Amino acid sequence: MTTTTNRIAFQGEPGAYSHEACRKARPGMDALPCRTFEDVIEAVRSHRADLAMLPVENSTYGRVADIHHLLPESGLHILDEAFVRVRISLMSWPGTRLDDVRHVRAHLVLIPQARGFLTQHGITASAAADSAGAAADLARERTPGIGVMASELAAEIHGLEVLARDIEDHHHNTTRFLIMGRQPDYGRRSDRMLTTFVFRVRNIPAALYKAMGGFATNGVNMTKLESYMVDGVFTATQFYADVEGHPEDPALQRALEELRYFTSSLDMLGVYPADPLREAQQRTD
Fold it and tell me: Where is the site Essential for prephenate dehydratase activity (predicted)?
């Protein structure tokens, strides 16, 4: 892949967890913040960035809303996946003590994840549109008694002081990101590859059951299968699937051939290596 800008686009303010994912997965690239997921995709399509970092699912809250609608229409291709542990830090402006903090702001999904810590310290919380944005606001306003829950990267970027680290109640919360680019890479870059595709089944009885049968009979592990409506019509359903293997593997090749027989459309979104954390998690299951 030819790099033209050395930028990777993400949704959110500097210091967002998506920004942290960019730093971890592509440390040599400059991160480009964007307002929406659509803006992230457009940044790559318009060559303002080479890659997009998009969150697709979280181990606590499930899939990211609307993202599966955007991926097939984006014109981009999945090149890698990245798993990032969500570590929540409480921060405030320098010189503030933890005992001084009476109220915190954070993205809505972070607040219940640190409920135990907040209760223990008698701290109330309110929702912000973006945790990293709340950190930027606090750095600018310097309101006494106010803190923010966000990534440690947000504190670093906005000049805040971390008062407590890893305050989440459960230390397994992980977000899965997809790294996407304009050109596909179907090369076998790892011993463990994943293939992602979307499809619609033909309008015949038991079509989905029959379409999935090829993966079972050929011993192909399907790690994800999700359905969602398209065009707001209940009868128009598209399926999003992740499977283990490379399309050139004989078993997966046979399974995909059988799938094509029962589908009205089948589009490959990407072929890419499994993140090492995926294997580590499966070893502990």
Answer: 175
Would you call 101 helix, strand, or coil by DSSP? coil
Q: Tell me, yes or no, if 175 is annotated catalytic.
A: yes
Q: State the Cα–Cα distance between residues 102 and 145, nearest whole angstrom.
A: 5
On whether the CB atoms of residues 106 and 131 are closer than 8 A, the answer is yes
Return the structure tokens found at 91: 């921060």
Question: Residue 77 is encoded by which pair of tokens?
Answer: 């291709």
Selected catalytic residue, list 83, 117, 175, 239? 175
Residue located via tokens 């810590």: 117
Q: Quote the pTM value.
A: 0.90
273 CB-side CA count, 13 A: 10
* 164-217 pLDDT per residue, tens: 999 999 888 899 999 999 999 999 999 999 999 999 988 778 888 888 999 999
Catalytic site residue from 177, 197, 199, 262:
177
Domains recognised in the chain with CATH numbers:
7-85+173-181 (3.40.190.10), 89-164 (3.40.190.10), 193-283 (3.30.70.260)
pLDDT digits (tens, 9 = 90+) for 248-269: 999 999 999 999 998 989 999 9
- Tokens at 164, concatenated: 């407590």
Question: How far is Cα 254 from Cα 285, in angstroms, rounded to an integer?
Answer: 29
> Is residue 135 a contact partner of residue 158, using CB atoms and an 8 Å limit?
yes
Helices 207-217, 250-261: crossing angle, 10 deg rounding: 170
Give first-to-last CA distance, the chain, whole Å: 36
Decide if 81 contacts 274 (C-beta within 8 A): yes
Q: Taking a C-beta distance cutoff of 8 angstroms, is the pair 196, 80 a contact?
A: no
Is 239 among the catalytic positions? Answer: no
